[in-house]
Design a protein that fits this description.
Length: 152
């Protein structure tokens, strides 16, 4: 029988923080966006050559990483405590690594993305609305300076 290759689904994933005090609830997010890298370019005009310009790569840019989840009660999340330190106390702890893993049916990692030097940039709470019965969502926007894709 020939090998069958299936495309991965995007709804089974985990986010692991290398954070002292992180709890099991801290891997569960509704959505993750911002796993992107862009290479900046610079245009160089060569003297005497008028037919074209050289475009050369310069720096890489990343993110920001945006995580969404249902709002958790105070004290139940190490990530929430980390955010409170930054936004309430102005104590900015940079996390060395955050790993986003795409999981298979057995909850094993198919592939993962490591992001380095992570710090909180924004923390938003969704609209409070008395006419709707939605889950209250918090949105975390994290800055980082390196993205590494790895197959597990």
């Amino acid at each position: 029988m020939a090998d069958q290759t299936y495309q991965a689904v995007n709804f089974h994933f985990a986010v692991n923080f290398t954070l002292q005090g992180a709890k099991s609830v801290d891997i569960k997010f509704q959505s993750v966006t911002g796993l992107d890298a862009t290479i900046d370019t610079e245009t160089v005009k060569e003297g005497g050559e008028n037919r074209f310009e050289h475009v050369i790569p310069t720096r890489r840019k990343y993110g920001p990483l945006i995580l969404k989840r249902g709002l958790l009660a105070p004290g139940t999340s190490g990530v929430t405590d980390w955010l409170k330190k930054a936004f309430d106390d102005q104590i900015y702890e940079t996390l060395e690594t955050v790993v986003i893993s795409l999981l298979d049916e057995q909850h094993q990692s198919l592939m993962h993305w490591k992001i380095n030097n992570v710090w909180p940039r924004s923390w938003k709470i969704a609209e409070l609305n008395g006419t709707r019965g939605d889950v209250l969502i918090e949105t975390l926007e994290l800055n980082y300076n390196r993205l590494i894709f790895q197959k597990s």
